[in-house]
Amino acid sequence: MINKSYIKVKTIWGYDTNNMLLTHLPKSDSIAVLFPGADYSCDKPLLHYARKAALLSGCDVLSLEYGFCRATNPVEGNPFNQIVKDSYEAVRLCVENKYNNIYFISKSFGTAVAGEVSSLVGYDKVNNLFLTPTEETIPYILRSKCTVISGERDKHFTQNNIDTIRKNSSVDLHIIDKAVHSLEIDDDYIESINILEYITKVCAKFVS
User: Fold this and answer.
1) 20 to 30 Å CA-CA from 139: which of 13, 121, 126, 162?
2) How many CB atoms are closer than 10 A to CB 187?
3) Between β-strands 30-35 and 171-176, what pairing exists: parallel, antiparallel or unpaired?
């Protein structure tokens, strides 16, 4: 049986974020936390099926949302530090002293947020899967044992970036042939679906 609840965090943008928590009965000893992209919610395909794979593997799942994504007025400056603070608070309220295994699955902008929250929680306590990381995520990748999935044609993660993280033997690196930042192939929907299946299987293996 799966129960649904929400971890609420007050933001500087004037309302609570509702971070959906799905939990198993009887209780699970593992949790996966989803960190969305700036414009890629947890309901979009990569994270939706990652959540499904984690649930079917027996993990509880916390799906984060970022306050600035719902702000009605333009956000001034760089909201990154506030997003990290809010995300860490949601993770802390949900995770602290409750789970033996903690998995972070993040997409794009969320990979840097996950990396920073990992440093607050403790790298020794967290397993990271970075989907389409950005250049800003490289320091976090190099500091952790993790899985990285990127598209060969991802303009936000160049061949130089890939070569940099290849040097870390602790990185399980998957480069998807011809895929762009969305981990799709623009002119081939069948192969894009096959890529989604492959990545979901990697996610299932990651949380198992």
Assistant:
1) 13
2) 8
3) unpaired
Structure tokens at 113: 């947020």
pLDDT, one tens digit per residue, over 150-163 is 999 999 999 999 99
pTM over 0.85: yes
The CATH code belonging to domain 2-207 is 3.40.50.1820
User: What is the rounded CA–CA span in Å between residue 142 and residue 199?
Assistant: 22
Measured CA to CA, the distance from residue 148 to residue 139 in angstroms comes to 13
> Domain map of the chain by residue range?
2-207
Counting as low any pLDDT under 50, the low residues of the chain are: 71-74
Say how many C-beta atoms besides its own lie within 10 A of residue 204's C-beta: 16
Strands (E), 64-107: 101-107
> pLDDT by residue (tens digit) across 192-201?
999 999 999 9
Q: What confidence score (pLDDT) does residue 69 get?
A: 58
